[in-house]
Amino acid sequence: MPDRRFAATANILAVADFHGARLTSSQSVANVLRQVVMVLAITVFTTLLTSNVTQAKQHTLANAQTRVSQLANVTTSQQHRLSDKLQRKLNPNSTTVTSTNAKLSPTTVTISATTRHQKTEQAYQQALRQLATQKQVTPTAIPQVMKQQVHHTISLAVNQKINHKIHQINQELTKLIHEIRQTLKHQLNHAFLNVFGALSWLPFAALLIVPVFKFRHND
Question: How confident is the model over 64-76, as a mean pLDDT?
């Protein structure tokens, strides 16, 4: 409703100096011109906004990929998977704007039970060899009770080390994703504000046209 009131006011101002037959013609011309200007304004606004949003995503993605490559506690394969995920979420060719930030959820790293078992067994076998060397016996000569104690101790130590490593990695990833989301939000805000800044001259240009119609009417 407010846009209709503004449009009606603009039409009244545009045809205020016309009378009689010219009044009807001027109203039609004013309506046509208003529709043309609206279409042009929407086209320009959409084009500029799409371009700015694309650039915002590109800048955010480039910064994010640089940050991912600098992660100290993350393996190369994990870095590649995270980079691929960011590429999908921050795809510059996508027109999605409002849900991009929401989709960029924190990434967590987990270790499977199989991997934990493999690392535990590797550490356990190494500990047995070291114990056998100290006692100057073969690993098979170590009593079963002692083997169970060693395995229990090694299992606790390995899992504690794995949990600590996972905690460090997840903290690092959570911090990174938070910073990327903040960067994206900042870039998108600038993308919208730059559109309004680029079109700020339009109202002043429209005011400059008014005297031209006045002079033509006086002629």
Answer: 84
